[in-house]
Amino acid sequence: MILPGADRLQGVGEYYFSQKLEQIRLLNIAGRKVINLGIGSPDMLPSPQTLSAAITAIQSDESHGYASYRSTPGLREAIAKWYQSTYDVAVDFEREVLPLLGSKEGILYVSMAFLNPGDKVLIPNPGYPAYASISHLIGAKAIPYNLCENRNWWPDFEALEKSDLSGVKMMWVNYPHMPTGASAAPELFEKLIAFGMRHKILIAHDNPYSLVLNPDPPLSLLSFDPKREISLELNSFSKSFNMAGWRVGMLIAHAEVVNRCLQVKSNVDSGMFLPVQSAAVQALANPQSWHEARNFVYQQRRRLVYRIFDLLKFTYSREQVGLFVWAKAPDEIKDVQAFVDQLLLKAGVFLTPGFIFGTLGARYARCSLCASEEQLKESIQRLENYLEASLS
Ligand SMILES: Cc1ncc(COP(=O)(O)O)c(C=O)c1O
To answer: How far apart are CA 109 and CA 111, in angstroms?
Structure first.
């Protein structure tokens, strides 16, 4: 007999990719050789200096005990310097930085530190699914706010002002936006901070894509709230430094906010493996040329992804930034999820259906740039064959 699970699991399914990757694994065992264009997991190496730092540290007998809950001062200092040089934001490394095991866990810690059961939290539709599921897991109420193509996927502040904001404690925002590839602009961030101040809503900005195919200078929301009164920012090594599997992210916030999150975090995990911290310090020192070379590869791949969507008659904006291309299905395709499943089963090419990002994503699909040109060309070939066969 298996006892029933907790009520909080009701309405939260297993993470879509967790299920889908298992389906792909089984298809591969059956000999299918699926090309996975769904997930944003960088396939290129971190910089050589990053790898050497990890290797050197792992050989030291001082690297294998528990690490400090706040991480080493060296990592926090390197993060603060990187915020200064990348975003022109001054950060006190002693008090305002909390390294995380990836930014996804930061979404949980921030939510646990700020939301009581029943509190409301504004989440983007479409948007990263973890905002809604984590809100649900901790008993908060996720209130979607609409993002539409005709507003460049920015919030409609007039509509928000007119909506019932009672009980709303926090708002998740994420620019460059995933999945739509919409970019940030100073005007947007100014409005967000003003909105947060006016309604006493904490604006939690999730910023993992600011260095990927995003024109200079990348923006931090914190530039627009220098005293960190109403905002915080999560950032990540996953996409900017090709370190998704290493699990390194960060929270930059007011010292009190950092302490509250540490209150949660230090009761959950026991620090980040020291060689990972040493590697992260090196990664932060990657020269601009390293980032440019990475972006050049993504740019070349993106041209092939455009061809994939052209072939499928999906439409998209070429102004998008970040690690994906987001494209709208033609009217003839009635059910995009079913269409994407067909492509997986019949052509062995996996794209992400937009419905997983919210109801306003239902007419869209997302293609990742984390696949080699060779794989993308092979995908084009497979899709051409599939379309030809389905016409005949
Ligand atoms: C918008 C957004 N936020 C956060 C994350 C999580 O990143 P990390 O690997 O740092 O946990 C992702 C990962 O895909 C993402 O797309």
So the answer is: 5
Q: How far away, in angstroms, is 149 Cα from ligand 1 center?
A: 22
Digit-coded pLDDT (tens) for 179-191: 999 999 999 999 9
Which residue bears the tokens 């030809």?
A: 388
By DSSP bridging, strand 349-350 and strand 324-328 are: unpaired
Q: Does domain 7-45+288-391 have CATH number 3.90.1150.10?
A: yes
Is the backbone of residue 283 left (phi > 0), alpha (psi -120 to 50) or beta? alpha
Pocket test for ligand 1, best of 128, 212, 221, 251 (most atoms within 8 A of CB): 128
Residue spans per domain, the chain: 7-45+288-391, 61-283
What burial class does residue 332 get, using C-beta atoms within 10 Å of its C-beta: 0-12 exposed, 13-18 middle, 19+ buried?
A: exposed
Identify the DSSP state of 192: H
CATH topology of domain 61-283: Aspartate Aminotransferase; domain 2 (3.40.640)
pLDDT at residue 144, rounded to an integer: 98
In whole angstroms, what is the distance from residue 252 CA to residue 221 CA?
A: 10
Both structure tokens of 49:
């200096």
Tell me the pLDDT tens digit for each residue of 33-72.
999 999 999 999 999 999 999 999 999 999 999 999 999 9
pTM: 0.96
Residues of the chain with pLDDT > 70: what percent? 100
For atom 2 of ligand 1, the residue with the nearest CA is: 128
Tens-place pLDDT, residues 270-289: 999 999 999 999 999 999 99
Model confidence at 28, pLDDT cuts 50, 70, 90, reads: very high
